[in-house]
From TrEMBL:
It holds the Pfam family DUF7899. It comes from the Eukaryota. InterPro entries: DUF7899 (IPR057221), WD40/YVTN_repeat-like_dom_sf (IPR015943). This is Putative transcription factor WD40-like family. It comes from Lupinus albus (White lupine).
Length: 482
């Protein structure tokens, strides 16, 4: 499967294999309470914000450090349950499978495994609500939370057609909370897309059917089809804020390009971009009015499609990355290469190189990193600093500032002991014999912190609840918070 990280979208392609992989130090507190020391501490934070030469950057960094201070292992969920009755109906449940994707919204956590099983867990009860698979021959390829109508979209493939096509289903979060999976309804019933891309930035869905070479654009709010594009010369479509870039079949010395309005498909501009002959095109990307083109062993070209002003970045300075993430809030983009991340602007200038942020996985998967909605922080699964004598194990979860590249917080085995679950009784508590109905849930954590940090294959941050979720090779989901 193929993951598209430009433009905030994600693309899922058909694969005939049902179990193939997815494409897509804090300061010490001076006071524990809110007394005089706490008041002075707050005043100092406000002073730093006011005197900062970089507007509110100093305050936001301090705020981020406080937000992720003292994160601990809080809970553990297991997607593998051979004793569950569903295991008799879902063959993929009979063996453990790694977590490939996590989505968390409100009080529900969704975990998708490589075998195609998706489980929903409640953060209120810490119990599994249900499995989202509806038949023994259905495998779920990916998940998408539709914030427009508070629903979950599952993209599935079926053994009935040898997993050769994709189908989509939508169900409201409230129905999942109640376990009423029969409330789900199919999307694009008349189409069998070869790929489907969800575009959260513009609130659109793009599908492609290889049978008739037809692209279709749907509205994420009500799933109505807006328009279709039928052009056999189109080789690729890139989605950006408000527009789509159609990349047509390359000629010997140029590539024909079209820019369309994403709302109604109107052609806004058509032009040819000159290419070096006999040079492979590494990538063509679109970000608003900026077109990024890179050919093999050539400089990066940044073209303003309004004025046709061209900026070039030396090939020695900008080496072809494996993936991009465009940051619309900051007018910047992230470039991933060889486990490293760098921030660039559209003047061709390197803005940030990250310190202590060597990604664990060599391939950039959006499932292993999280960018906050304000585009200020990147949360990633990293290799621990080999020079850190306090580090236990060789992996950590890092929270870094995108604008400065500094590591603001780090979750590792040496500083993240599991949180003890205590009784909520105030008086006359007898410990394990307490029979209070208000007694807090006893944790099911079986993994040590070091084990929970090993072999992480998926990562997600719930910004509303300030919780990080990680999934690993053993099909376990771990909850981290303070």
């Amino acid at each position: 499967m193929e993951g598209v990280v430009g433009g905030g979208g994600r693309r899922i392609s058909v694969s005939p294999r049902p179990c193939s992989g997815r494409r897509i130090v804090a300061k010490k507190r001076s006071c524990c309470g809110g007394g005089v020391g706490g008041f002075v501490n707050s005043v100092k934070k406000l002073q730093r914000r006011e005197i900062s030469s970089k507007r509110d950057r100093g305050f936001s960094m301090s705020n981020a450090q406080e937000r992720f201070r003292n994160f601990r292992l809080q809970e553990e969920y297991d997607t593998h349950d051979p004793k569950d009755p569903s295991a008799l109906e879902l063959p993929c449940l009979r063996k453990r499978s790694k977590i490939t994707e996590i989505v968390a919204t409100q009080d529900i956590v969704f975990a998708l495994t490589q075998s195609g099983v998706c489980a929903a867990f409640s953060r209120e009860t810490n119990q599994r609500i249900c499995f989202l698979n509806t038949s023994p021959v259905e495998v779920i390829r990916t998940l998408f939370y539709n914030k427009n109508n508070e629903s979950l979209i599952t993209v599935t493939a079926h053994g009935s057609d040898n997993y050769s096509s994709l189908t989509c289903r939508s169900i409201g979060i409230e129905y999942i909370r109640r376990g009423q999976l029969d409330a789900a309804f199919a999307l694009c019933e008349s189409d069998w897309p070869g790929f489907i891309e969800f575009d959260n930035v513009n609130g659109k869905v793009l599908t492609y059917s290889a049978q008739d070479s037809m692209y279709k654009v749907f509205d994420l709010k009500n799933y109505t089809m807006l328009y279709s594009i039928s052009d056999k010369n189109v080789q690729e479509i890139k989605i950006s804020l408000g527009i789509m870039l159609l990349i047509c079949s390359k000629a010997s010395s140029h590539v024909p390009l079209k820019i369309l309005s994403i709302e109604d498909g109107t052609v806004l501009k058509s032009f040819n971009h000159l290419l070096y002959r006999n040079k492979r095109v590494n990538f063509i990307e679109q970000f608003n009015e900026k077109l990024l083109v890179k050919q093999e062993n050539e400089n990066l070209q940044i073209l303003d499609v309004r004025t046709f002003e061209l900026t070039e970045v030396s090939r020695s300075e900008f080496v072809t990355p494996s993936a991009f993430i465009f940051l619309y809030e900051k007018q910047l983009f992230l470039a991933f290469r060889n486990r490293t991340v760098a921030v660039w602007n559209f003047r061709g200038e390197l803005v940030t190189s990250f310190e202590d942020n060597l990604l664990w996985h060599p391939d950039c998967s959006m499932n292993n990193i999280y960018i906050t909605n304000d585009h200020n922080l990147i949360i990633s699964y990293c290799k621990a600093d080999s020079d850190d004598s306090l580090s236990e194990g060789n992996c950590s979860i890092n929270v870094s500032s995108i604008l400065t590249g500094k590591c603001l917080a780090k979750i590792r085995a040496s500083n993240s002991f599991p949180m003890e679950k205590e009784c909520s009784c105030v008086d006359n508590c007898s410990g394990s014999s307490c029979n209070s109905r208000k007694r807090k849930h006893v944790s099911r954590i079986k993994s040590t912190v070091a084990e929970a940090l090993e072999e992480i294959t998926a990562l997600y941050y719930n910004e509303e609840r300030n919780e990080i979720f990680t999934g690993n090779e053993r099909g376990l989901v771990h909850v981290w918070s303070n």
